[in-house]
């Protein structure tokens, strides 16, 4: 077969290797999720089942791509951070981002029923788009995650007040929008507290802080069956260490989180 | 909130706009599909349900991204061709490939049951990786598709003989591999014919030629209910034109296909 | 010597291969040439010596890099077009543009005296910056050159009127600028003709059209000294074909130039 | 003029912005300098005039592009390091490398006579090609410079022994090559010392270590003429600080150089 005659087309592929010694961030965003949440009647302002499914799908990505050291998600977006020395897919940007987007999307459909049950079937296959961004220093990476968490806070405070005004205050969405125009964070906190007796600070951390996934070592105690030299069997208790993806809903902007988890980042001067 | 302080990290994103006036090809490949097909007990050498699911998922991609003018798939891969003048996502490579990978993957899980029924459940979420390649001329693009179809032919002929030797000839896989070492296409055809009375030419086209998806205009005849001026209603028959994704299993290497579908490609000298 | 310990830094280089089957254009622009022309007292609006030196330097580039099929220059810029199938420097963008920039700049200083003589010495080493742009089709490439030539026309007409108003009309530069604000090409032609009796159409083509350099085959007749078998010598006249860089100052926007030189461009559908 | 019709071609330019917060290194290499040194009869193994000219040209580049914090050269190559926070040319790789290549090349021709005098005229315009490499950390950058200096050492030791064997030992170049095959650094030192009484350690540092250019602040004492209130004039002595490019021929592999010049590099964690 004249295979060779066409094979020159391979040379049109270009190299998109990510610069070495930089953190590789892949961020996914839901496509047309405004419409998607409407059609699936998601609770407003936050749907805990949806947040759980997002987090479950992100865990599925981390378990497939072990060089991801931390992931952060909020609303319909999730960011995955590959360690700076990663050599997965030879650091080819296209491979990294499509693999993440694909694994996340298939997981989202696969685990849907676990979170939404039989009553709310998935109506059509949703999609996420992605991008790759490189960060050369620990400072830059922390600032990236802080940027996303600050965004989470700003949006969640707004949405909380907005939907409270609509759902409990009886305003139309247009009226609620008008009411909030130009208000600062303090104003919004005040509306919640004085008009609806809601203390924003006591809202669930998953909503205020988003979800941070990291690897954690756990000691597991298992009982194993051991053969003795005399051919008898004996049960022994064994302790072994296993890495597991663990979810946190804490502040990542301050230094405390990073001090408590010194293994996530690598030294800058390497 | 100190949002602005972190927002500088956006400047680390780089522009990956695809060169104008080139066809943009996104090719997806199944990840670890050897293991996946084993675990889901796919029929050998080809599983029609799986090919149907691949094709269904590809159609879902085309319906979401209308600038795709042709798609070609075989085995666990699928290529999608955006028209050279497309401005989807401002031609940003990362967005195009992640959207395609995501939509394909979520569709693959979503439509699984349509093809595999209740008896063969999906065991875990599969994934596909992708890449983007640009082709400046019609000749280059046709040669790309010819390359994939020639690859389909070479692999399918090999797999057909290999599994016939194993399934009907009683050879082990190692023996079948040894037997085929160094054989040419003619030798393989001869083994099939003289030893198993199989004429490769009469094998299904979907296996020998893969699947080509293109848009086709169809005239649809629908019956509509029309209100007359006197307030009565009357049924009228209306003919309207609709674009639909249509599957073909034909040769795309020769010129005939392209002559029969002159609208797929745009003029080179534009 | 611990050479190997450091050699990992080579892996930080990234591949910048230009997409195959596209014309590669390298355009150079003079840096701070406004100041440079002032300090070297260039004639206004055009200095023929400077244009000659630009053209001479461009020829030096073409003679060094034979895959350049056409070059076009005007004012303090020059564009060099590599043929679409070129494999010079493995099509690495960085190598192509730096080599062109370097060869042009060293030639500019080297040949300065040929054009400016001993009286006007070069005061300091000038510099040019460059860029690479790819064009997939003949139409795109012709439109690129047309764009530059249209720019040449617009600028030269403006500068011609502007400096005529200043030099012959006695206006200050500020007054000339004010006078030309909002004028169209026809207005400018009219000012030249009615106030200064200058017919712009008869201005030198090198100014109106810029300089186009292409390769041309010439038959050369040379007299060679040949040794005869009897050890005597005899002069013989030999005709041989040689490629030479030839300058044109003609229109490249219309089709005529391309029809007269069919060998410059390659077929689109290759 | 139909300028707008063609202007779409500008959109074919692609963005090549260098990743933020990384050192940008532009390295130049002489093209065909083997032939160039032969034709200009450079002294072997090192021509001090040529090294001086390289250094002078590099200084000219640094003075034009003030964001270059350090430059390192040896043989016919020179590397220029832009500070990691530089925003010159908006960090566009093509602009940075072509400007460096151009300024260096024009300077090389411009200052030729200063180093080679009237007796050895430049025969033709030489050229240099360049590339851009990014380094995210101080460690990476130091290792890059160490890599080049280690290369300088290895090559200079080899060349010193090689040409000593030829010039003083009477060997042909082929014999000298053969003699050195497989020898280690210690062997080469031994040949120099025992056969020619040359202690390599006392060779000039410029040859063993190459040339490092950095900015240094100098206090300059100048006498200025000052007008007094009573309209008289008075001479005053003023001390002012000026940045100047200073050449060093020292080790940059160890930490001492960096400790002595703490201002060259910026903090990693920025």
UniProtKB/TrEMBL annotation, chains A, B, C, D:
Binding site for Mg(2+) 1: 29-30, 76
Residue ranges occupied by any tRNAHis guanylyltransferase catalytic domain in the UniProt entry: 6-136
GO biological process: tRNA modification
Record GO terms (molecular function): GTP binding; magnesium ion binding; tRNA guanylyltransferase activity
Catalytic activity: a 5'-end ribonucleotide-tRNA(His) + GTP + ATP + H2O = a 5'-end phospho-guanosine-ribonucleotide-tRNA(His) + AMP + 2 diphosphate + H(+)
InterPro entries: Thg1_C_dom, tRNAHis_GuaTrfase_cat, tRNAHis_GuaTrfase_Thg1, tRNAHis_GuaTrfase_Thg1_sf
The record's free-text note on cofactor binding: Binds 2 magnesium ions per subunit.
Swiss-Prot/TrEMBL keywords: GTP-binding, Magnesium, Metal-binding, Nucleotide-binding, Nucleotidyltransferase, Transferase, tRNA processing
Domain named Thg1 C-terminal: residues: 140-253
Binding site for GTP: 29-34, 75-76
EC number: 2.7.7.79
Cofactor(s) annotated in UniProt: Mg(2+)
Binding sites annotated in the UniProt record for Mg(2+) 2: 29, 76
Main enzyme class: transferase
Family designation: Belongs to the tRNA(His) guanylyltransferase family.
Protein purpose: Adds a GMP to the 5'-end of tRNA(His) after transcription and RNase P cleavage. This step is essential for proper recognition of the tRNA and for the fidelity of protein synthesis. Also functions as a guanyl-nucleotide exchange factor/GEF for the MFN1 and MFN2 mitofusins thereby regulating mitochondrial fusion. By regulating both mitochondrial dynamics and bioenergetic function, it contributes to cell survival following oxidative stress.
Subunit-structure text: Homotetramer. Interacts with MFN1 and MFN2; functions as a guanyl-nucleotide exchange factor/GEF for MFN2 and also probably MFN1.
Protein name per the record: tRNA(His) guanylyltransferase
